[in-house]
Amino acid sequence: MVWNRVAVVGAGLIKMGELFEQSYEQMAAAAFEAAVASVDKGFEPHQVDAAFVATQRGTLWGQEGIGGNTIPTAIGLVGIPCTRIENACPSGSDAFRVGAMAVASGVHDVVLVIGVEKMRDKSTEEGLLSRAASGHPIFTRGETAPVLFAPFATRHMHEFGTTREMLASVAVKNHYNGARDPYAHFQNEITVDDVLNSAPVCHPLHLLDCCPQTDGAAAVLLVPAERAAEFTDRPVFVAGFGAATDHPYLHEKDSFVEIKATRLAAQRAYAMAGVGPGQIDCAEVHDCFTITEILDVEDLGFFDKGDGGRASLEGDTALTGRIPVNTSGGLLAKGHPIGATGVAQITECWWQLRGQANDRQIDTHNGFALQHNAGGRGSGVSVVNILTNRK
Amino acid sequence: MTSNSEARTGARIWGVGAGAPALRVTTADIGAAWGRSGRSQIAACAPDEDTLTLAWDAASAALDAAGVEAEAVDAILWGTSRPPFAEGPSLAFLAAALGLAADVEGALLCGSTHSGMEALNAAADMIAAGSAAVALVVVSDALRPGLGTGFETRCGAGAAAVVLGAHGGAATLGRRVTNTRPFVDRYRGDGESDNRDLYDPRLFREEIFLPSVEGVGRELAQSSVRAWSLPDPDGRLGAVVAKTLGATTLASGAVYAAVGDTGAAAALLGALGALDTPGVVALVGTGGGRTTGVLVDVDAPVPGASRAGAVLAAGRRASYAQLLRARGQLVPGGETIPMGVPPESALFVRGADEMLGLLGGRCVDCGTISTPPTIHPTCINCGGPKLEPVSLARGGAVHTYVINHTMPAPFVAPLPIAVLDMDDGARLMLQVIGDGKDVEIGGRVELVLRKYAHERGVPVYGFKARLVVGRQEVTS
To answer: Cβ atoms within 10 A of the Cβ of A274, count?
Structure first.
C-alpha cells in the first residue's frame, strides 16, 4: 500500500455532558479551539485546508438536512471544503480515517477532523423512539438501542458462562477511569453492586451497563508526516486503519457472540500497521454497553473468544492491567456523543502516546494505541484506527 | 310480531375454531370502581390484540381443524361490531394475514352485534347459490362500553370461525328465523368510541329484548333442540329466555362466564363447544333491532369444537386500570411522539404482503432464506442473485433474546424480543407475547398475528412469537 505518512499534531475536546446551554455550533467552535491550542508550536486556524465533520443524528437537533455544513461558519473558516461523514456510531472514527486518507493521498495538506453531536436537544423518549421502528415495517418494533446489544449478552452468557458481575466489572473500571478524566460526563466511581442493583433497562442489561446520552465535540488536526516538525516535536502518527461491514439487521447475523465487522476491521488495521494485538499498549474501544467492550476485547484479538468477561473481572483491562482499555472512561463514563465519540477516543490515544494522560497515564513502551467503534443498528459497521509515537 | 323467513341452505360445517384475547378482568374489580359488586369475569384485548387479531386466531384454528388450505377458501365473511378501520382495509388485512388468495370473495358485516349472524347467513347463502365452494365465516368482537354503563361488567371479547362447504363435513346449517324492528338497543353514534348506556333497562328488557329473542327462540324450539346459545347482555336475560323456551342445555352459559358478552361473536362462540355432540344446536344473535336464530344439525363431532373450551380458559389476570389502558380508555396526557415511518407510506405498501404474509427469498444456490424480500435482492449468505419466494415457517426456537424494560408509548414494557431460528432455517427477530419470564434459549415458539402499534390512527399488524410451552394460563 503506497500512502504518505500522516501525523496528528493537535487534538482536543470539550467537557462532555448534558450541554443544554450550548448549541451544536458552540460545541464545535470550542472543540476546534481546544485542538488549535494543543499544537505545541502554535497553529493558525486559517492553515486548515479542509474539514471532515462527523455528525450521526442531525434529526436529534432538527438539522438532518444540513448537519455538518454549519461548521465552517461556526469555526470562522467559511470557504474551506467541508464534508460530513455519517457512518453510524463509528462516524467519528471514519471521519478520522477519511481525513487521514485525504492527507495520505496528497490532496489536502492540513485537515481538521471534527466530531460534533447533540444528543439531548430532543427528549429521551424521542431519541429512543427514533430507533424503535425503522427500515422495513416487518422489523421488530421496540428495538431501542439496548435491544441491539443485549441479545449478544444473553448469548455470550449462555455459551461462555459470562456473568452479570463480569459485565458490571467493565462499568466499574470505566467509571474508575472516568473519575480521573476531567472531560468525562460521569466522574464518579461505582461498585459492582451499584451496577447489579441499578434499574433493569433491557434484560440482561441494567442502567449502569449502558452509556448515557451525551452532548459533546472533539477535534484533531492532521498533517503530512514530513510537515509535523513545523507544529510539534512530539508527533503521533497514523499507523494504520481498517473499516468493515456486516449485515445491519440482527436477524441476518450468524453469530451473537462476536461482532464480525470489528474482527474484519481489526485484521485490516493490524495488517496496515504491521503490528498485532500483542503490541498495542492501550485501546479506546466501543463500550456503548458493558457487553460491547467484552465482545470488542475478544474481536480485537486482546483475549480469546469467550475470555473477555473473565479478563475484565480480573483486571486485565484496568489501568494497571496487561492491556488497559478505555482509559478515558469510555462511552460508559466519558459519554457517547455519537459523531464526537471516535474523535474523542483519538484524543485520548494521542494523550497517552505523548505522555499527557496525567492520572490515567499508562506505560506505552510499544508505542501503539488502538481506537475502535462499532455500530449501525446491529453493528453493521466497524472502524479501527491505530496510532503510534514511533517515528 | 315475529316475521319468519325459513331457509334450509344445507351448507355443511367442515371445522370450527375459537379465539380469545389475553386479558381476564373480574367484574368485582370493575364494579368496585362504581360502587357495585360482581362475581364473574370478562375477557379483554391486550394492547396488541383487537377484533382483527382475534378473527385471525379463530379463522386459523378453524382452517386447521377443517384441514383446508388458505388458498382453497373462495369467500370470507367477517362479522364484527368493531372493525379496526371505521372505513378502510379491515377485510383485506385479515385476508392477507390468513394467506387467502387475492381473488377471494367476501364481505365485512358490521353496524351492530347482529353482524355475526349476518356473516353466517351470507356465507351459507353463497354456498347454497354455488358462488363459493368453500366459505370462511369469522365473527369477532371486542366490546368497548362506556365507563360506568350498565353492561360494562358484561362486555367482553372473543371470536369464532366456521369453515363451510357444500358437501362433506360433520354438521348442517338448518332452519333460519329472523326478526327486524326499528328499536334503539345498544348503540353508539357516528364518531363515538364507546357504547352508550341504556336509556331505560326495564324498557329494553320488556319491550325490546325479550319479545324479539323469545319470539325467534319459540320458532326454533318447535324443533327438538339439544343445546342453545342465547344472548345474555346483562348476566340475567339469557337465563330468562332459556326458562321461557324450556331450554335445559344452555351451552353459551359457560362461554359468557369465561369471556363475557362477545357481541357479534356471541351466538356462534356460545354454540361452538356444543358442536362436539350429535343433535340439534340452536344459536340466536341479536343487536341493532335485529334478532336471528339458526339451527345446526350435528351428525358427528365437528372438528375443532372440542378445542374451544381450552382457548377460552386461557388468559392472564389484569386489573381494571390495565383493561382501560389496553382499550384506549385510559390515556396518558401530553403529546404522543410519531413514529418515523407513516403507516400509509410507500414503505408499508411495498412491505404489506411481507409483513402480513411472512415471506422470504430462498437462495437457489445455497438454500439460505433472506427476509424480507424487498430489501434483500441478494442472498445474505452467498450473495447469490437468484432467490425464489417462499412462505416462512411458523414454528421455531429462541436463539437469543432480551426483555426491554424502557419503552416509551406506544410500546408497553416489559417487552420481550427474540432472535428466532425458524424450522425452515430462516432467522427472524420478533416481539414475544407475554412478560418474558418464561423465555429461554432453545424455547419453542409459534407465530401469531398481533397488532404492533396504532400510528396516526392506523393499526399496524404483524407476527409475534408465542411460547409453545410454559405459557401462562389461568383457568377461569
So the answer is: 10
- pTM of the model as a whole: 0.91
CB A199 within 8 A of CB A207: yes
Q: Which of A126, A247, A256 sits opposite B337 (nearest CB)?
A: A126
What is the residue range of A272's domain? 6-122+212-388
Does a structural domain hold residue A44?
yes
A21 lies within 8 A of chain B by CB = no
Grid cell of A107 as nine digits: 490532496
Establish if A130 touches chain B: CB-CB under 8 angstroms. Answer: yes
Asked if A375 contacts A89 with a C-beta cutoff of 8 angstroms, the reply is yes
Q: What is the Cα Rg of chain A in Å?
A: 19
Establish if A43 touches chain B: CB-CB under 8 angstroms: no
Using 50, 70 and 90 to split pLDDT, how confident is the model at A131? Answer: low
Chain B partners within 8 Å of A64 (Cβ) = none
- Say which of A206, A286, A336, A372 is annotated catalytic: A336
B81 and B214 assigned to the same domain? yes
User: Of A89, A202, A288, A349, which residue is the catalytic one?
Assistant: A89
CATH code for the domain of A229: 3.40.47.10
Put simply, whether B462 touches A (Cβ < 8 Å) is yes
Range of the domain at B65: 12-327
Q: How confident is the model at residue B182 (pLDDT cuts 50, 70, 90)?
A: very high
Per-residue pLDDT of A161-173, as tens digits, reads 999 999 999 999 9
Burial (Cβ within 10 Å: 0-12, 13-18, ≥19) of residue A298: buried
Residue B263 placed within a domain: yes
B436 close contact with A: CB closer than 8 A: yes
pLDDT, tens only, A116-128: 999 998 888 777 6
Best mutation site among B350, B368, B402, B431 for testing chain A: the one with the most A CBs within 10 Å? Answer: B402
Q: Are strands A205-206 and A282-284 parallel, antiparallel or unpaired?
A: unpaired
Q: Which residues are CB-contacts of A158 (< 8 A; sequence separation ≥ 6)?
A: B400, B441
CA of B108, closest CA in chain A: separation in Å?
26
Confirm whether B214 is domain-assigned: yes
Residue in chain B nearest A205 by alpha carbon: B402
Domain count, chain A: 1
Q: Between chains, do A136 and B351 touch, taking CB under 8 Å as contact?
A: yes
Lowest average pLDDT, out of A15-29, A32-46, A64-78, B1-15, goes to B1-15
Whole-Å CA distances, B121 to B94, B135, B285:
20, 11, 12
| Same domain, yes or no: B278 and B400 | no
Q: State the complex-level ipTM.
A: 0.93
- B411 — contact with chain A (CB < 8 Å)? yes
Does any CB of chain B come closer than 8 Å to the CB of residue A141?
yes
Segment holding A101, helix H or strand E: helix A91-104
Radius of gyration, alpha carbons of chain B: 22
Q: What is the CATH number of the domain that holds B38?
A: 3.40.47.10
Please answer whether residues B74 and B135 qualify as being in contact, where contact means their C-beta atoms are separated by less than 8 angstroms.
yes
Tell me if residue A89 is catalytic.
Answer: yes
The rounded distance, in Å, linking the Cα atoms of B73 and A94 is 55
On whether residue B100 sits in a domain, the answer given is yes
Q: State the DSSP H helix or E strand holding residue B119, giving kind and residue range, or none if neither.
A: helix B115-129
Determine the residue of chain A that is closest to B407 in CA distance: A142
| Closest CB from B405, B419, B436 relative to A151 | B419
Known catalytic residue: A288?
A: no
